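User: Hi! I'm working on a homework problem where we have to compare a predicted structure to a textbook description. Could you give me the structure for the chain below?
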Amino acid sequence: MRVLGVDPGLTRCGVGVVEGVAGRPLTMLGVGVVRTSADAELGHRLVAIERGIEEWLDTHRPDCVAVERVFAQHNVRTVMGTAQASAVAMLCASRRGIPVALHTPSEVKAAVSGSGRADKAQVGAMVTRLLRLDAPPKPADAADALALAICHIWRAPALNRLQQAHAAAAARTPRVPRTAAVPVRKVPR
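Assistant: Happy to help. Predicted structure tokens:
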């Protein structure tokens, strides 16, 4: 499985491609950051992010795109920018028919480090070890994108089995036909 991980952001949108299967050594195929100027107009920044992600999709042809799920922060402006960049990544993948998976930051941290409360340095160190790199990818947004891809590769088989089990259970459950409503008569007191 080849996964493009996207750590969304308006100024720095981390992107990383990892290939492999759960239980086997993983391979990094590429890592980088799509950058936009904080001074640029919002629409232009979103177009720049779209072009950057489209370029990564063209180059690496992933089977899936894993995007960090936006979570609530105190800084609404940061959340909005992250959500907008996230939407661009999901749109680019969906337009091509590539499945999109969302993972929370704590899910990703737990998958790569064993702790959902790991800090950026711990995540970077584990990404470096897991992908057998000489040094942690810089900036942290790039390392986070690789961590998202790793998380998805490791979690996708279990998620697929759960979805298949739910679908099978739904198919086996007999549907109870609806009966006509019986009018209720009021009884005088």
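For your comparison, note the following. The CA atoms of residues 13 and 34 lie 5 Å apart. The mean pLDDT is 91. Good luck with the assignment!
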